[in-house]
TrEMBL record:
Originating species: Nyctiprogne leucopyga
Keyword Cytoplasm recorded: no
Signal peptide: none
Summary of the function given for this chain in its UniProt record: May be involved in the intracellular transport of sterols or other lipids. May bind cholesterol or other sterols.
Protein name: STAR5 protein
Length: 211
């Protein structure tokens, strides 16, 4: 049976709302001037869900411009963990199936990965933008020989306007990824907090460069 991509995307967005409203159980693991990163055990798979929270010095429009998951978007230019991003199938105006590839990382201990996700974009009445995603299979995306197939469990980013501060944006992000392959848990546990700190740092630079 065909996957119901729209329903899976909707469920991922629901999860993001739950994570956002649920402050309990998060344990801090890394803090920089740009982001505080915390984690808790995932209810979706045998790993952790990570939460990044920081304020980016840029308008919500500029921050969104840098992170929005679209073909030809800016993310491949500034995000060191995204090598390539392509839309495999547009399901609707706001839902698409996408393939992301990542370069090798962590001194090449982590080889290149590929992820196939259904991605949803939503705007809320207060101007908050959400991008939410979760792993799916797609007939046009069989596993590729040079990549390890990884799996994103419900994950996403909220770009939240700060009242009275048009040039600052709260960015709340949730990462929940099974990298696949046979990686030592210690590598996985040190990779994500460092990677999220890098994400916020590189995003901050990218937003500045838009000006």
């Amino acid at each position: 049976p065909a996957m119901d991509y729209a329903a899976l995307a909707e469920a991922a967005a629901e999860k993001m709302g739950l994570y956002r409203r649920d402050p309990g159980g998060w344990r801090g693991c890394r803090r920089t001037s740009e982001v505080s990163v915390s984690w808790r055990p995932s209810a979706e798979f045998a790993g952790n869900v990570y939460r990044g929270e920081g304020v980016v010095p840029g308008s919500p429009q500029d921050v969104w411009e840098c992170i929005k998951p679209v073909a030809g978007g800016l993310r491949t230019k500034w995000d060191q963990n995204v090598k390539d991003f392509e839309v495999i199938e547009a399901i609707s105006d706001t839902v698409s199936v996408c393939r992301t590839t990542t370069p090798s990382a962590f001194m090449r201990i982590i080889s290149p990965r590929e992820f196939v996700d259904v991605v949803l974009i939503r705007q809320y009445e207060d101007g908050t933008m959400l991008s939410a995603a979760t792993n799916v299979e797609h007939p046009l995306c069989p596993p590729q020989p040079n990549f390890v197939r990884g799996f994103n469990y419900p994950c996403g980013c909220f770009c939240i306007p700060l009242p009275g501060e048009p040039d600052r944006t709260q960015l709340l992000s949730f990462f929940q990824t099974d990298l696949g392959g046979y990686l030592p848990q210690t590598v996985v546990d040190s990779f994500f907090p460092a990677s999220i700190a890098g994400f916020y740092s590189n995003l901050t630079k990218a937003v500045k460069a838009l000006k």
